[in-house]
Amino acid sequence: MTNQVHSVDDVAARAEAAARPFADLEPRTRAQALVDLADAIDASAAELIVTAMRETGLGEARLQGEVRRTSNQLRLFAEVVVEGAYLDARIDEADPQYVIGPRPDVRRVLQPLGPVLNFAASNFPFAFSVAGGDTAAALAAGCPVIVKASPGHPELSVQTADIVVGSLTASGMPDGVFQLVSGQELGTALLRDARIRAASFTGSTRVGRMLAEIAATRDIPIPFFGELGSVNPAYATRGAVEREPQLISGFLTSVAGSAGQLCTKPGFLFVPAEAELGDLAGRLGLPDEHRLLNPVIGGAFADRRAQVLDASGVTVHLEGSVREGERGQWFATPTVVEVTTEVLARTEMLLDECFGPLSILVRYRDTAELAPLHRRLFPGNLTSTLHATDAELDSGEWTALITELAATSGRVLFSGWPTGVSVTSAMQHGGPFPATTTDATSVGTAAIGRFLRAVAYQDAPAAVLPMPLRDDNPWNIPQRRSAAGLSQDWGRLDGRY
Amino acid sequence: MTNQVHSVDDVAARAEAAARPFADLEPRTRAQALVDLADAIDASAAELIVTAMRETGLGEARLQGEVRRTSNQLRLFAEVVVEGAYLDARIDEADPQYVIGPRPDVRRVLQPLGPVLNFAASNFPFAFSVAGGDTAAALAAGCPVIVKASPGHPELSVQTADIVVGSLTASGMPDGVFQLVSGQELGTALLRDARIRAASFTGSTRVGRMLAEIAATRDIPIPFFGELGSVNPAYATRGAVEREPQLISGFLTSVAGSAGQLCTKPGFLFVPAEAELGDLAGRLGLPDEHRLLNPVIGGAFADRRAQVLDASGVTVHLEGSVREGERGQWFATPTVVEVTTEVLARTEMLLDECFGPLSILVRYRDTAELAPLHRRLFPGNLTSTLHATDAELDSGEWTALITELAATSGRVLFSGWPTGVSVTSAMQHGGPFPATTTDATSVGTAAIGRFLRAVAYQDAPAAVLPMPLRDDNPWNIPQRRSAAGLSQDWGRLDGRY
Predict the structure, then answer these.
(1) Where are the domains of chain A?
(2) How many of the other CB atoms lie within 10 Å of CB of A268?
(3) pLDDT tens column, A227-258
(4) Would residue A354 show up in a list of annotated catalytic residues for this protein?
(5) Contact call for B457 and A403, based on CB within 8 A
(6) Domain B8-228+441-452 grouped into CATH 3.40.190.10
(7) Looking at the domain that runs over B233-414, which CATH code has it been given?
(8) Which end of chain B is more exposed for a tag (fewer CB within 10 A), N or C?
(9) Which among A213, A441, A463 has the least Cβ separation from residue B394?
C-alpha cells in the first residue's frame, strides 16, 4: 500500500472527514494507536535504516538512535494523552457572590484544532519527518495529519508512511487520519486550503518565512509553527578552558556529528583570547569524510565554506575538506576557523547559519563585552551554551551574559553541547525569530499545545459536557477547580500561597 | 501628570529599558503593584465614570459594573502571579536510563516576552482600554505595556493613564513600564518597531486584519492577538420556547444592553418556525433611546440597519429607531427583524456583524438542518448559545449542533446570554477567525499566556537557575517533576493514571 494521493481537494477532504471521529476517540484508544505505531516502527527499523542511509548519507548508529527517539517519542505522547494534564481542564464553580458580578458555572478545556499540515525536514529522516515529532504531537492532540514529504528521502518517506497508515488502520483509527503528499506546489496549495487548520515546518529561513506569510495572509489565517535557522552560540570562560581538557574535543564532536547538519550545531564558540587550544586535528584525530544530505545542501556548504575561508580576518584552525564525488554527492570533514570579536562584529556574512560541518572560534578579551555583543549579534536561537566553573558563576561576572542567553534562546545549556536534543516534558526547542516563527517548541511534550484550542462551556448540563469537564471525571485527568467564595479574598496576597 | 509621549523611538526605548528590571521583580512585588492600581482605580471611579459617560454615552450603572470588573481583574491577576501555576514550571530530573538516551537535567519555565503594544477598544472604556484586560494580563506576565488609546474616549484615556502611571510609580515599578500613546500612525509605527515583542487589539475585522499582517510580515514577526468580529448565534428549541416565558425578553435585554455595542451581542436567535413570540415591544416595553459610542459607529449602524430592513425576505419584528442628534451623535432603540433559514442562507450581507442594537430572529423548520447550516454560515465566533430542555439534550437530537458550536466558538452557553462576560480562570474569550486572529483568550486568567515564552535550562547550576526552577522552590509555586526511571514504563498504559 502506498499513500500517495492526488489532488489538494481529495487530501483536504479526507483529512477533514477524519477530524471529528478522530477527535471523539477515548484518550486510551488514541494513545494505544500511538504505542502500536511505535512498535510497528521499531519492528521495521532495520529495513527503514537501510533506505535512510542510502538516501541521506547519515550513519547507521546515528539513524538507530534517531529511530529509538522517534518510536519512544510516540510512546511518550501516548503517556501524555492518557495522563490528560495537557487538556488544561479548568472548572469555575458558579459563584453568586463573585466580586465581578454573579459568576456562572464555566468550564474550559483544550480541544484539537483540526487537520494539521506538516512540512518534513531533510536532516532528520525519522525524528522530524513522516512519523516524527510534529506528527506525534498532532496525532496525540487528536488532529489528522498530512505530511508533505521532504524531497531528500522520498523512498523512506513512502516506506514510513505505509507503516504509519497500516498501523493506524490496524489500530482502528479513522480513514484519512494520516496522509503523505509530495511536491512544493501541492504543499503550498494545501497550506492555502480552508480545511487545514495549522501547519508546522522545519527547514530554511527563506522557505519557512514564505510559508509563514501564506499562513498569515490567507482568507482565514492559521497558526504556522516554523523552525527556521539557528547558530547556537557557545561561550567558554577561562576557568572552563582550564578545567575541561575535553572542552574542544566535545565542541568538535558536536560540530562534526551528522556532518554538522543539525539545527542545534554550535556555530560559534567564544574562547578567551589567550587560551591555548593546541592542534585541533592532532587532538581529535580527523573524523572520516561524511556525505552531505543532498547535492543542494552539499553545494551550498562548499560555497559558504569558501566564502568564510576567504573573509578578511578569518584564520584557519582546522582546515577540513569538502569535495564533490559521484552523482553530485558531496563529502566533507569539519572545518574550524577563528576570528576576533572585532572581526565577527563587522562581518555580517559570518553570522548567517552555515548548514554543515563548519564552526567559528571567536577570541574575546573582555568578559564584559560579551553580553551586549550577544544581544546585538544573536537575537534569536534555539540554544545557547555557557561553559564556566561554579566559582565563576558565583562571582556574578557572567550574570549579564546568562540573562541575554535566556532572552534570546529557547534553551540555555551549561557545560554541555546543544546537539542531541532530548525529548522530555521540560524540553524547549523553539526560540525568538528566526529560530522559530513563534516561540513554541517542536520537541518535547509541550509541543502538543500547538495543535489545540480552548473551548469554554457555560452552565452546560452534565450530559453535554465533554468528559474532561465532568464532575465525575471519567478519564481521571487533572482538573483545576476554582471554588465559589475565593474572590472575597482577592488582593490580600496574605500568605495564602 | 500626563503620559503623552512624543516619538516612536522614545516610547519603544523606554519600554525596552523597563523590560528587564520589571521582569526581574519578585512576583509578590509585581502583584502588589497590581492590587495598588486596582485600589487607585476604585478610589477615582466616580470622576472616571463622569468622563466616560460624557465621552461614550454609556450609562452609569453599566460603567460602574465595568470599573468593578476592571479593578477586580487586576486583583485576580495579582492572585495568578503569586500563585505561580501560570509559569508552567517543569523539572526533568537527569536520567541515565532514559529510553531515548541519557537525559540531562532539564527545567523549563515561562518568562515575559518583553514590551507589549495594546490597541484599546472603543466600546469598553475601562475593561478593554487603558487599564483593561490586555494591560492587566501583560503587566501580570511581567511585560511593559504601551497602550494606543482609543480615539473614542481620549480624555478618559489620559485620565486613566495618569492614575496607572502614578500608581505604578508609587508602587516602585520601573520607569516606562506603562505608556499611553495616541494616533493610528504612531500605533502602526510602534507595531513595526523591533523592540515591541507582542501586540493585542480589540476592534474591527478590517483594522485588526491589517495590523495582524503588519505583525506577521515585519522583519522579526511578533505574535498579534486581535479580537475582531463575532455575531454570536443563539438557538432556541421548541421546549425552550415553551419552558422559558422570559426567553425573548432575555434575548432583547442582551441585544439592547450598551446599545448592542458589545462583541458578544447575540446577532441571531434561531427559533422554531411555529413559535409564537407575541408582540416584543409590548412584552418588553421599549427601552429608552441609547446614545451610540461615536458618530462613526452611529452612522455605520444607521446605514447597516437600513440595509437590513430593505433586504428581500426580511420582516420587521420590532422596528426600533435610530436618529442623528446634535454634534453628530446618534441615538437608537433596538431593532429586531425576522427571516427564514432559506433567506439567511442566501443573503450574505445579513451574516456580517452589525455593531449596535439590531438582531435577527431566524425561523427554522427542521432541527437537522441547523448543524450543517451553522457550520457553513458561522465558522468563527466568540460565543454560541443553545436554549434547550434537559430532555431535549438527552434525546441526542441536538448533539450534532452542539458539536458544531464547540468547533466554531470559544464559548458555548446553555440557557443564558453571551453578554456580560465573567473574568474567571476558565473563561475563554477568543475563537476561530474572525472572532480572534488566534484562538487565544483576551479575558480570564488564561489571557496571561499570550505574553509569555518558554525557556529551558539544561544542567544549570542551582545558583543560576531562575527561582521557579530551583529545587528549594523559594516562591512556593507548583512545579511538575518528571522523576528518573519513568520512561521504562512508557507505552504500557497500564492503569498508572
Answers:
(1) 8-228+441-452, 233-414
(2) 22
(3) 999 999 999 999 999 988 889 989 999 999 99
(4) no
(5) no
(6) no
(7) 3.40.309.10
(8) N
(9) A463
